[in-house]
Amino acid sequence: VPGGIFNNTSRNELVVRLQPDEAVYLKMMNKKPGMAFEVSQSELELSYNERYSGVVLPAAYERLILDVIKGSQVNFVRTDELEEAWRIFTPVLHQIEKEKKKPIPYKYGSRGPKESDEFIAKLGYEYVPYAWKN
To answer: Which of left, alpha, beta for 128 (phi over 0: left; psi -120 to 50: alpha)?
Structure first.
């Protein structure tokens, strides 16, 4: 928040980690107890492997195949959603093809190209690495 009482604090983050090792965590900046105006980082964490140890979680495709067998369409896109997605993205895809845009290469398994950090920096954000507690 501009004009806040704390200087140089990180932003709060809500992170949802899909596969592998599904988890959700909220990283927050909070004032340390006491009279000083100091902040510290705290985490609220839900790691499925730790919270539900011993429970076998099916892989994504196993869940989808089970949904098909049950006749559930909850995890599938409706026709009108698909048509709307094509309406939005077809012009973008045509523009990319017309301009012969090349993707920016980056190392497999990394966060992505350095240009993404430069882009978010222009918007006032900064990536701060998070050490996941295992």
So the answer is: beta
